Structure formats: structure tokens, C-alpha cells
Amino acid sequence: MRSAKRFFTDGEMRDLLTKLRQRARNGRLIDKVDHALVMFAWATGCRASEIASISLNPRQPNWIDLRAGLITITDAKWDSKGTIPVDASSLRTLRHYVREVRPRLRNAAVLHQLFLTKTGSPYNPNKLTKKMRLLLQRYGLDGKSAHSFRHFFCTDLLRRGVQLHEAKALMRHRDVRSTMVYSHATVDDLRAAVNRRLG
């Protein structure tokens, strides 16, 4: 099944986040960076191009306010502007990354982008997409990409009872039909639906 390879199940996502968190605790710089990057993708549902452009500078069109826990997007595909709140746990991870990890990256003191490559340059969308694909392959998640996080974000919102219009706002879609396209029934969802017949 093509969709089964492209989209995360709950178990895959839990396993990925757990492994990244454990590896980040071991002290390797790259593992700490990877943990923050994946947490950002998981927590926001941002596109790869948006993640690459996120800045710590409020004068930039796409930036993160670590104090308020808000991400502002004003330059995005299809003019999909909006504000995305970050949950408390992810915000703690991102604050730790900015305070303790990012300063150890090359050129961090002179560049405003939140995430930097290992050579100390800003990501562009293609580099970010490649980085995420290779990272996911390293954890046995072949076929998934940076965009898979966006699909999971929307599916997870709706599965947890978020109203469709709220999911649309968080996804920054102009048409609710686009939001519905991003929602996917996983095998776990289908199993739960069948089991509800027995309740």
C-alpha cells in the first residue's frame, strides 16, 4: 500500500520521537539538532519550505516567538498565512535547543534561521527535504518525508476531536476540502472503528 509507506502510524511516530529523545540525551550534537527539528515538524505541521525559513528574528516573514510559543507564517505556499501555537512540551524542547544546542552550531551567532546545516549555512527547501528523508531512513522509515509530518499533524488533530474549522486554521488552508485531503485513516483507526461495533 502506497499510503501505508507515505504516512505515519501512531506507533511509528511514538517510536520515532522516543528514539530521538533518547539519543539526544546521549550528548551528541547532531542528535540534539535532529530531535529539535523533528519535534518542530511534529508540533507545527509546517511545510519543508516553511521550516527552512523559520527565523528567530521577528522582522522576518516566518518566525518563532519562543516567549509566547507562537509561530507566525506570512510567506508561504498559496499565500497560506497564519499563526501556529506550539504545545508546552515541544516549546520546552525548542527553547532548550535555542539556548543550549544552536549556539554550538557553526555561524549560529551571525545567522537568524532557527535550523542550520552541519556546515553552518541556512537550509533551503530542497536541502531540508533531503535532510528529513535521510533522517527518517536512518530510523527505518523509508518512503516518508518532511511532508509526512504535515499529513500526520492534520490526521492527529482530527482524530483527537479538534473541529474541522480549527484544523483548517492550523493547517492554514483556504478551503476546508484541502484539510480533509490531509486526513488519513490508518490501520489503527480502522481497527478501532471495527472494535467500536463490539462496545
> Using DSSP, what is the number of strands?
3
**Uncertain parts:** none
Radius of gyration equals 17 Å
Helical content (DSSP H or I, runs of 4+) = 40-55%
**First-residue to last-residue Cα separation:** 29 Å
Architecture, according to CATH?
Answer: Orthogonal Bundle
| Whole-number tally of structural domains | 1
Could you tell me the CATH topology label: hpI Integrase, Chain A
Mean pLDDT: 93
* CATH C-level: Mainly Alpha
Describe how the helices and strands are arranged.
Elements: H1 2-6, H2 10-25, H3 29-44, H4 48-53, E1 62-65, E2 70-73, E3 82-85, H5 88-101, H6 125-138, H7 146-159, H8 164-171, H9 176-181, H10 187-195
Antiparallel strand pairs: 1-2, 2-3
Helix pairs in contact: 2-3, 3-5, 3-7, 7-8
Structural summary, described in words:
- The protein has 199 residues and is mainly alpha-helical.
- The chain has a single domain, classed as Orthogonal Bundle (hpI Integrase, Chain A), CATH 1.10.443.
- 54% of the residues lie in helices and 6% in strands.
- It has 10 helices and 3 strands.
- The protein has a 3-stranded antiparallel β-sheet with strand order 1-2-3, with no helix packed on it.
- The longest helix is centred in the first third of the chain and has 16 residues.
- The mean pLDDT is 93.
